[in-house]
Amino acid sequence: MKTIKLLFALFLAVAMTACVEDKVYEGPNSIDGVTIVPEAPTSFDDIVVTATVSGLQSVKSATLVYVIDGQVTQVPMSGNGSTYTATIPAQPDGTKITYNVVIENEAGYTTVSKDFEVTVGDKPSDYTKLVLNELFGAADSDEGKYIELYNNGDDPIKLKDVVIRKDESDAWTGLADEVIMPHSYFTIVGAKGTTPRGISSGFSAKKSVLIELVAPNGTVVDKFQRGEKADGWGNQSLSNNKKTWSRCPDGTGKFMIADGTLGAKNPDTGEEDPTVVQ
Q1: Which of 216, 213, 225, 203 is nearest to 273 (CA)?
Q2: Between vectors from CA 81 to CA 78 and to CA 85, what angle results, nearest 5°?
Q3: Which listed site, 113, 153, 162, 177, has its alpha carbon 20 to 30 Å from 197?
Q4: Is 68 exposed, middle or buried (0-12, 13-18, 19+ CB in 10 A)?
Q5: What is the 3-state secondary structure (H, E, C) of the chain?
Q6: What sign results for the dihedral spanned by CA atoms 166, 138, 180, 276?
Q7: What is the pLDDT of residues 234-259, one digit of tens each?
Q8: Shortest CA distance to 253 belongs to which of 154, 173, 133?
Q9: Average pLDDT of 116-145?
Q10: 149 close to 251: Cβ distance less than 8 angstroms
Q11: What is the distance between the alpha carbons of residues 214 and 71, in angstroms, rounded to a whole number?
């Protein structure tokens, strides 16, 4: 009889332990960490949000919730096990983003992380890395003439309020949405207003000319000069260059006569032009 009572007592203890374990098992999951990459996003970066989750229950759903200017956006997070990710698309410079992560497990419990904040902040543009890279004035019509810029730096350069002056007069001004990415090209095609974003002046391949690249603060950061001003730019007749004047090698070299490579890498060398002031 004592043996039966003892076995019954052991059975009750095991049953009670199982009940306690079941309650723990059916509890909420934990969100152990929320990180973003990059940690200091710019307006050129998508923001990847990663949540690390633990718990005895499987995750039924993971949701990234972010708020910009009062507008709430919910994005399903992908992943399995303990790691879930979602992306906030790139936002304008100065945008403040508040975000959190919501986890629902198979037992129906919901866990919400604390709120996080990040502000999009662009690095100041380094206009000393911006150069005139290729110039072509020998096209059959003004629509085909162009000036190419190049970014020698490792960060994007915003072209807003960058000015190209031709013969000491403003001929083109960059807009807010115009950006040149690191080690990349930006082309300005068309002369005399023949294209929507072309230069407003003519550009001859057989006359004296001065092209200046001016930063928003008014500093001339690069220039191309062929011939001399004399009594006025464009009044000096010179040999007709049917090719381009290109920096050889690309982005850093002297201006040389070379085959055109609009929007692509310049040749490493070309033909010297003694009429170009280097």
Answers
A1: 225
A2: 25
A3: 153
A4: middle
A5: CHHHHHHHHHHHHHHHHHHHHHHHHCCCCEEEEEEEECCCCCCCCCEEEEEEEECCCCEEEEEEEEEECCEEEEEECEEECCEEEEEECCCCCCCEEEEEEEEEECCCCEEECCCEEEECCCCCCCHHHEEEEEEECCCCCHHHCEEEEEECCCCCEECCCCEEEECCEEEEECCCCCEECCCCEEEEECCCCCCCCCCCCCCCCCECEEEEEECCCCCEEEEEEECCCCCCCCCCECCCCCCEEEEECCCCCEEEEECCCCCCCCCCCCECCCCEEC
A6: negative
A7: 999 999 999 999 999 999 999 999 99
A8: 133
A9: 97
A10: no
A11: 39
Residue 124 has pLDDT above 70, yes or no: yes
Mean pLDDT of the chain: 92
pLDDT tens figures, 24-63: 468 999 999 999 999 999 999 999 999 999 999 999 999 9
Q: What are phi and psi of 17, to 5 degrees?
A: -60, -40
List own/partner pairs for 6-11 with CB under 8 A and 24 or more apart: none
Which of 80, 165, 92 has the alpha carbon at shortest distance from 122?
92
Give me 234's structure tokens. 């464009």
pLDDT band at 17 (very low <50, low <70, confident <90, very high): very low
Q: Which two tokens stand for residue 93?
A: 């410079």
> How high is the pLDDT of residue 2?
45
Q: pLDDT tier at 230 (50, 70, 90 boundaries)?
A: confident
